[in-house]
From TrEMBL:
<dbReference type="InterPro" id="IPR001638">
    <property type="entry name" value="Solute-binding_3/MltF_N"/>
</dbReference>
<dbReference type="Pfam" id="PF09084">
    <property type="entry name" value="NMT1"/>
</dbReference>
<protein>
    <submittedName>
        <fullName>NitT/TauT family transport system substrate-binding protein</fullName>
    </submittedName>
</protein>
<feature type="domain" description="Solute-binding protein family 3/N-terminal">
    <location>
        <begin position="38"/>
        <end position="260"/>
    </location>
</feature>
<dbReference type="GO" id="GO:0042597">
    <property type="term" value="C:periplasmic space"/>
</dbReference>
<comment type="similarity">
    <text>Belongs to the bacterial solute-binding protein SsuA/TauA family.</text>
</comment>
<dbReference type="InterPro" id="IPR015168">
    <property type="entry name" value="SsuA/THI5"/>
</dbReference>
<keyword id="KW-0732">Signal</keyword>
<feature type="signal peptide">
    <location>
        <begin position="1"/>
        <end position="18"/>
    </location>
</feature>
Length: 324
C-alpha cells in the first residue's frame, strides 16, 4: 500500500500524475459490479482528503459507476493546468485557483464545496511559529518570514487581515511559498519564522513545542470555505452525466464523512494514506464537510483579496459557481 509521506519532500509543479494514491482507496468496492468509468481527481495530500479516500473505499463512487484515482496536488491553482489539459477530470483545492481562472475566463467552475473551517472552537488550519521566533500574536508576524502553500491565496490574504485586525502592518509580512509537507522541516531549520498549515501539521507542530499564533480563517471569515470542488465548463457541457454522477457521489461522501458514526473509517483513511503517528491520526481536527457552496464566505474572501491587492478585481461568482 502506497502512502503519501507527510513530512517528506513532495515536488509538485502543476500536478503529479504518477502513483501516489492508496491502492485500496482507488479501487472499486467489492460490492460493485459492471464496468466502472475511471475518473482522475486532484487533491491535496492532507487530512481533509480523508473524506474522499474513505468515500471511495466505502464504495460510494462505485455505486455511481465511477472508479476514482486521487492524485496529489500542492493547491487548487496548481491543478488547474492539468484540469484544462484534460489530464484530470476534477480538482479539490482552495478557492483562489478558480478565482483566478474565472478572472482569466478559462471556463473553470466550482460545482460544490468540500470542506469549511469552524466559526468557533479549534479550527482546521493555523499559523504556527517557531518557538525561537518570539512570535506570540498575529501582529508579531509583521516583518517575519511566513510560509504558505500557495502565494496569493486564502492563506496569505486571511493572515494579512488577521495581522491588521491585531494592530500590525500586513504589508511587512514576508510570505514564502512552501508545500505543506515541507513546512515543519523548514521551520525547524530556521528558514522561515512561521508557517500557515492545515491538519495534521498543526497538531504535529504544536506537539513538538512550536507556538500557535492564530487561526486566520476563523479570525476574519468564520466558517470560510477552505476547499471547493472544481471542473471545467467544457466538461459540464459535454459530459453532464459524469458531472452529475460525480457530484452525487461527492455529496453523499461528504454527508457520510460528516456522520460521527463514520469517523473511525475517516480516520482509518488518514492512516492508510498519510504516514502519520497513530496518535496524530486519531486526534487531528477534521473539517466541516459539506457539498453546498457558501457564496457569502467566498464573496468576503474575494473582497479581502482585492483590498490587499492579491486580486486586481473580484471574480464573477454568478459565472464561477455552478452548484450541482
Amino acid at each position: 500500500m502506497k502512502k503519501v509521506m507527510a513530512l517528506g519532500l513532495i515536488a509538485v509543479t502543476a500536478i503529479a500524475l504518477t502513483g501516489c494514491t492508496d491502492s485500496d482507496a482507488s479501487s472499486p468496492s467489492p460490492q460493485a459490479s459492471g464496468d466502472l468509468r475511471k475518473v482522475r481527481v486532484a487533491a491535496l495530500p492532507i487530512t481533509e482528503t480523508a473524506a474522499l479516500w474513505g468515500g471511495i473505499k466505502a464504495g460510494i463512487f462505485a455505486e455511481r459507476g465511477l472508479q476514482v484515482e486521487v492524485l496529489p496536488a500542492q493547491g487548487g491553482a496548481q491543478a488547474i493546468p492539468a484540469l484544462m489539459n484534460g489530464d484530470i477530470d476534477f480538482a479539490i483545492g482552495q478557492p483562489f485557483g478558480p478565482f483566478r481562472a474565472d478572472l482569466q475566463k478559462l471556463g473553470v467552475v466550482i460545482i460544490g464545496n468540500y470542506a469549511s473551517s469552524y466559526a468557533d472552537g479549534d479550527d482546521i488550519n493555523a499559523v504556527v511559529a517557531s518557538a525561537k521566533s518570539g512570535i506570540r500574536r498575529p501582529a508579531d508576524l509583521a516583518g517575519k518570514r511566513v510560509a504558505v502553500n500557495s502565494l496569493g491565496a486564502a492563506g496569505d490574504v486571511t493572515i494579512m487581515a488577521a495581522v491588521e485586525k491585531d494592530g500590525g502592518d500586513p504589508t511587512r509580512i514576508k510570505f514564502v511559498e512552501v508545500a505543506f509537507p515541507d513546512a515543519p522541516a523548514q521551520l525547524a531549520a530556521g528558514n522561515i519564522d512561521a508557517a500557515w498549515v492545515p491538519e495534521p501539521f498543526v497538531t504535529q507542530l504544536k506537539s513538538r513545542g512550536d507556538t500557535f499564533v492564530v487561526a486566520p480563517y476563523q479570525a476574519v471569515v468564520p466558517g470560510l470555505a477552505t476547499l471547493t470542488t472544481i471542473t471545467t465548463t467544457e466538461r459540464t457541457d459535454k459530459d453532464a452525466a459524469l458531472v452529475e454522477d460525480f457530484s452525487a457521489a461527492m455529496k453523499k461522501t461528504l454527508e457520510w464523512a460528516g456522520d460521527p458514526a463514520n469517523e473511525p473509517a475517516v480516520r482509518q483513511a488518514i492512516k492508510d494514506n498519510l504516514q502519520l503517528p497513530p496518535p496524530v491520526a486519531e486526534s487531528v481536527r477534521l473539517p466541516a464537510f459539506g457539498w453546498d457552496v457558501d457564496r457569502a464566505s467566498l464573496q468576503k474572501l474575494a473582497e479581502l483579496a482585492q483590498k490587499y491587492r492579491v486580486l486586481d478585481r473580484q471574480p464573477d461568482l454568478d459565472r464561477l459557481v455552478h452548484q450541482q
